[in-house]
Amino acid sequence: MTSSDQLRAAILLAAAMAEHERQCAERSLRFAERHEGLLDTGSAEQRKLHERMSAINRGSAERHLATRRIHLAHAERLRNWRLDDPLGVEPFMSAMAEIVGAPTALTLVGSSLAQAYASASDGVAEAAQDLELMLSEGPMTDAVRAGEPAVAEVGSRSDAQRWPLYLPALADLGVREVIAVPVGSRWSRLGALAVFGPGHAGAIVRRLGQVADALTQSVLLASDSAGGFPYLTFFSAGSGRSTIHRAVGMLCERMGCGPADALALLRARAFTAGLAVETVASGVVRREITLD
User: Fold this and answer.
1) Where does the record place a coiled coil (predicted)?
2) What is the C-alpha separation between 68 and 28, in angstroms, rounded?
């Protein structure tokens, strides 16, 4: 299959997923309305049950509609994406940034919570994300570890004490505020989603939380009738900056070290061997280089 064929297939998949989410939202709303129509009947306990079921279904409808917006924006980005443009942004993350309203980055982690995959909507988000990998501190790291949102204002003294290395470096990028929310659940932490420089933290946290929930339930964990996970193709090795991050994650789990130490090992081997860091990382991922 050629690159053009793969792109057309991706567009069709995104459009099909958007239509699926629309249908799911309509079904959830019908269920909610059915329970709301029964609120004035039955006992007090039955009314509480109908209220709870109405809230659950309306929450489900919101998530499906949020996911539909992601898929539609992604399909539009794919239609306008130039395959021959090496500087073009990754379409999925560009769509996420449009939904959230600010530069956006996604980090997925392995079982040891080390970064295994990274993708960003633009140069600012990419640089901010890479700072966390290099410095081993920052909002996405904290959001994954704590399982709750991490918010910081660049220039704040209290936040500077929490991330003494990260925030000054972030200021050099022109970012005023950073917000990260966990992706996954309290039982399974899959990663974190962050926005940079948005302002209005309260509104952004809620919107980002909705997007992260939609991303978790309807993209990362969404299976088809055959039990596969079709939308995970957008997080394959051909997208995002996965090679170095996968190598760092593998080294962290194999050697029991932190991301900064793993990255230092990659760079040291690259320097002594006269190779690019990406080349060494590829060797680690293919298990041709162990760095033991």
Assistant:
1) none
2) 14
How far from the centroid of its chain's Cα atoms is residue 184's Cα?
10
120: left (phi over 0), alpha (psi -120 to 50) or beta: beta
Six token digits for residue 46? 């039955």
Alpha helices in 37-90 (DSSP H): 44-79
In angstroms, the CA 117 to CA 129 distance is: 11
DSSP states along 140-172: HHHHHHHSS-EEEETT-HHHHHHSTTHHHHHHT
Token duo for residue 117: 């995959």
Question: How far is 205 from 202, CA to CA, in rounded Å?
Answer: 5
Query: Is the separation of the CB atoms in 264 and 275 below 8 Å?
Result: no
Give the tokens for residue 281: 């990382």
What mean pLDDT value characterizes the chain? 79
Closest CA to 262 of 274, 276, 280: 280
Per DSSP, the three-state class of 225 is coil
Cβ(91)–Cβ(81) under 8 Å?
Answer: yes
Do the beta carbons of residue 38 and residue 192 sit within 8 Å? Answer: no
Tens digit of each residue's pLDDT (9 = 90 or more) over 230-289: 556 555 444 556 567 677 777 877 877 776 677 778 878 877 777 766 678 888 888 888
Residue 224, burial from CB neighbour count under 10 angstroms (0-12, 13-18, 19+): exposed
Residues in Cβ contact with 247 at an 8 Å cutoff, skipping those fewer than 6 apart: 262, 266, 280, 281, 282, 284, 285
Question: Three-state SS for 241?
Answer: coil
Q: What are the pLDDT digits (tens) for 135-178?
A: 778 888 898 888 888 888 887 777 778 888 888 888 888 888 88
Torsion sign (Cα): 183, 94, 201, 152: positive
Structure pTM?
Answer: 0.72
Phi, psi dihedrals of residue 250, rounded to the nearest 5°? -65, -40
